[in-house]
């Protein structure tokens, strides 16, 4: 199942940023924590991969 999100643009006099919110269900299932580092990998013009810099051990998700 996929989760739809919208790209948000924040314009300030000194910079412009874009944000994507991560749904809580994904945050909880991946055990994400505030301050963790991630990197975006551009696969092609339609796909980006968000990857943890410090990888955690995988565990099987409940079905």
Secondary structure blueprint with pairings:
Elements: E1 7-11, E2 16-20, H1 24-30, E3 38-44, E4 47-52
Antiparallel strand pairs: 1-2, 3-4
Write the element-wise H/E pattern from the N-terminal end onward: EEHEE
Count of DSSP strands: 4
Characterize the largest beta sheet: strand count, sense, and whether it forms a barrel. Answer: 2 strands, antiparallel
Strand content: 35-45%
Class based on secondary structure composition and strand pairing = mainly beta
Write down the Rg.
Answer: 14 Å
- Given as residue ranges, the uncertain stretches (5+ residues, pLDDT < 50) are none
| Count of individual domains | 1
How many helical elements? Answer: 1
- Helix percentage: 10-25%
* Lateral arrangement of strands in the main beta sheet: 1-2
Mean pLDDT: 90
- Determine the N-to-C terminus distance: 12 Å
Shape: globular
Question: Would you write up a description of this structure?
Answer:
This protein has one domain. A two-stranded antiparallel ribbon has the order 1-2. Strands 3-4 form a two-stranded antiparallel sheet. It is globular and about 45 Å long. The chain has 1 helix and 4 strands. Strand 1 and strand 2 form a beta hairpin. With 63 residues, the protein is mainly beta. It is 11% helix and 37% strand. The mean pLDDT is 90. It starts with 6 loop residues before the first strand and ends in an 11-residue tail after the last strand.
Key descriptive features of the protein:
63 residues, mainly beta, two-stranded antiparallel ribbon, 11% helix
